[in-house]
Amino acid sequence: MRAVILAGGLGTRLRPYTTVIPKPLVPIGDRPVLEHIIRSLVRSGVDHIDLCVNHLGELILIYLANADIPPEVRLAFHWESEPLGTAGALAMVPDLEGSFIVVNGDVLTTLDYRELFEHHKQQGAALTVAMHAKRVNIDLGVIESANGLVKNYIEKPSLRYEVSMGAYVYEERALNFLPPGVCQFPDFVLRLLDAGERVAAFQSDADWYDIGTVGEYERASADVERYPEKYGLESLPHTDHDLIPALEAQKERDEVARRRAAARVSRGR
Asked: What span, in angstroms and rounded, lies between the C-alpha atoms of 199 and 34?
């Protein structure tokens, strides 16, 4: 299976943690959330992962080049020159064929991606969205009224919603509905529905945290500290990864650019 991780977000809601590091490298337990995602995908059978990066993407590349990533997975980087959104970024990834998984780079979950993938295939959908039940507590008295008269009074109700987990399965044909430029995922779902395409829902009771906010990040960190075995925190032997040549090539390109800039300055003098 193939997966795409969207790792280009600015992480503004997670400051001050993301002031100097990109959100996917925020640590959860003994490793960044991005590494948790990669390991979880590999355990589900994924062997090819594309990473869409933008903000501080060089740090993500450097980290993964030196991390103990399972050797059976192949990683590829795709750089956004400008943010293209949570759906638009897929336009940068070449040769996306058949069915593939897409995961936001700020998700910590015990979701079984293989089950999500199989559900997608059974539904024959263009897109499948993993969903999680979320309760929202209203700490106020809620009034229902009509024509200026109170019809009901509900003290501090608790509402239940099914929310997106930031994990999806796409069918290749869904990409035909991506508009040029920026496209956010909610808008993309509506485009598919308007076109009459089938969008499936996969309900999951897996543990799940969207670490995009400080509160959820701290809750996720506490859960990993208390139940590390749920997140597969066994240590792996160190293996050299094929990102090292990519990093060296990038360093060489940077050095060539630096020399050319210095030469231009010298000629200007």
From this structure: 27
The overall longest dimension of the chain from CA atoms, in Å, is 82
Token look-up 């700490």 returns 139
β-strand partners of 200: 128
Q: If residue 37 lies in a helix (H) or strand (E), which one and from where to where? A: helix 33-43
186/88 Cα distance (integer angstroms): 11
CA angle 99, 100, 104 (to 5 degrees): 150
* Residue 22 CA to its chain's centroid (Å): 12
Question: What is the structure's pLDDT at 12?
Answer: 65
Cα(182)–Cα(85) distance, integer angstroms: 5
Category of 196 on φ-ψ map: left (φ > 0), alpha (ψ -120 to 50) or beta: left
pLDDT in tens, 165-182: 999 999 999 999 999 989
Contacts for 261 with CB less than 8 Å, ≥ 6 apart: none
Burial class (CB in 10 A: 0-12, 13-18, 19+), 115: middle
Pairing of the two strands 127-137 and 199-204: parallel
